[in-house]
Design goal:
There is one protein chain. This protein has 8 helices and no strands. By secondary structure, the protein is an all-alpha fold. The chain has a domain of 163 residues. Helix 2 packs parallel to helix 8 and helix 7 runs antiparallel to helix 8. The termini are far apart.
Amino acid sequence: MKLIEFLLDTKMYVVTIFELIAAIAGIWYLRRTCNSGLEIKFFVYYLVLIVFLELYGYLPIWAYLENYEILSFYKDSLFRRNVWWANGINIITTLCISWIFIKSLSNHAIQQKFQWLLISYVLFSFLSFSTFGEYFHAYDPYVSILGVFIIMIAVGFYYFQILNSDKILNFYGDLRFYISVGIVLWALCIIPLNIYSKFFNIQNPLYMELDRIVLRYSNIFLYSVYAIGFYMDYRSGKQNSNVLID
């Protein structure tokens, strides 16, 4: 089957495996803990959504590889490329990840300002997609880069807060810490790709290969850190419970 050959050649399935591991780790974490905040639950749901979207993304690729002899409805459809859900997931990622850190802040004034910032980001995204962007045909670097900067600001406030509190003594047992490490290092790899995304075309095969390699290993790192974070947070919570019992 051409799809299997394509996946083996591009190694796309490797990232999907790590996404699945992170989602399973999140589900396991929710089943093991009783005091998970709503934002953490939504983060786990977000990871499950990523897995489903990745699996769905194989369908239009399969149709294309088979010259639309199967799944022929993709041929002239706006959904024949996976760009549309990649653009959409950028917005969802920004909202979900930012919310995790915003909810941890004790300063309610900053929380409210961040909420307005996220609303403004969503409005800007819709404006960008409906005017100079191409939601179904091209990645929108403006939406992606702005989303990354918003996440970085939220992470910065989170770090500032734990540095000025007793949480610094047990930072390695906080899921948010692992999410922040994963997303910050991932962003440092992804931002250059977003800036030069216009070069991602068949006229630049070397850049396309570089883009795939960087994206693959940055995603493997990201979802590995997420999975580790779920375990470390659970273990830390269990140890604290044992201390209280003793």
